[in-house]
Specification:
Elements: H1 3-15, H2 19-36, H3 45-58, H4 63-80, H5 105-113, H6 118-130, H7 134-138, E1 145-146, E2 151-157, E3 161-166, H8 169-182, H9 200-214, H10 224-235, H11 240-247, H12 252-256, H13 263-267, H14 272-284
Antiparallel strand pairs: 1-2, 2-3
């Protein structure tokens, strides 16, 4: 892409897009150019339509991935080529609404006990005790842990927002034990050499090993700790707005889905079959 690649990189920088988003957008536009086999500024709307059909019909991309590609191409046309982006009948694909899988309290306990090292347990406990994303956990620095105020500072989380979380006394005890043994400097969970944080893949691997040792059969991932955190807080009486702030959600609607996962929510609802059986019981006697 040459000149157009540099122009797009500059446009994304001016918009303040995250580095990961920039890399993804450039990748999609590069694939579009390779598919069309013409110079980037010569691509027509008909070719864009053909490419998008290729993504959905041939490659069968997920809804979210398709929408990501569409956003990238739209950005390129409007912000770089300065051309209108109009495709008749084109709409963003609406992904299916799925509820996340949640672990029970017993499963979380088994998972934590299945950690292979004190460091791994500290990582998993931090995720479950705070609801942080894995990328936020591995980027924690020592100065983010405030044992005086019993808070944890998440700096520039998703959406480039800072937020504060509660520091659990139980988690603080684990972190102090981990610190006495590992003596980390800078990052709470440093990677090899200590100059950079532990990689996300290393934290996910720690979760996978603990899951295997705990013999948890559910299809769960590191992110399930975040879902379990929110669901268990609701079951303990926390309100949705409090949990929204802790998770860093922009929309309350995103947080409200956890109400469908709580045992309290299900336990308060009575099946009409039970009511029907109660009415039938006297007759049977």
């Amino acid at each position: 892409m040459g000149v157009f690649r540099d122009a797009m990189a500059g446009a994304m920088a001016l918009r303040g897009l995250a580095p990961k988003t920039c890399s993804t957008y450039l990748s999609w536009v590069r694939r579009l150019v390779q598919f069309c086999r013409v110079a980037a500024d010569q691509i027509t709307m008909e070719q864009v339509r053909a490419y998008l059909l290729h993504l959905t019909q041939d490659l069968k991309l997920s809804f979210s991935t398709f929408n990501q590609a569409l956003n990238a191409i739209r950005f390129f046309f409007i912000e770089v080529l300065k051309r209108p982006f109009v495709l008749e009948g084109l709409r963003y694909q609406k992904p299916p609404r799925r509820l996340p899988v949640v672990m029970s309290g017993d499963e979380v306990k088994r998972l934590l006990e299945g950690a292979q090292s004190l460091r791994d347990r500290a990582i998993l406990e931090t995720a479950y005790a705070t609801g942080m994303r894995v990328s936020e956990v591995v980027r924690l620095r020592l100065e983010d842990i405030d044992s005086q105020r019993m808070t944890i500072r998440v700096e520039q989380g998703k959406g480039r927002k800072d937020r504060y979380l509660m520091l659990s006394p139980a988690l603080l005890e684990t972190l102090r034990g981990y610190y006495r043994v590992s003596k980390p400097k800078g990052f709470l969970f440093p990677g090899k050499g200590g100059a950079k944080p532990l990689s996300v893949s290393a934290a996910q691997k720690a979760f996978g090993m603990a899951k295997q040792r705990a013999r948890i059969e559910k299809r769960v991932s590191f992110h399930t700790l975040r879902h379990s955190f929110a669901t268990h807080l609701l079951e303990d009486g926390a309100n949705v707005r409090q949990i929204q702030a802790l998770l860093g959600h922009r929309s309350l609607q995103t947080t409200e889905r956890y109400t469908h996962l709580t045992e309290n929510y299900l336990g308060q609802i009575r099946s009409p079959l039970d009511r029907l059986r109660e009415k039938e019981a006297p007759r049977r006697g």
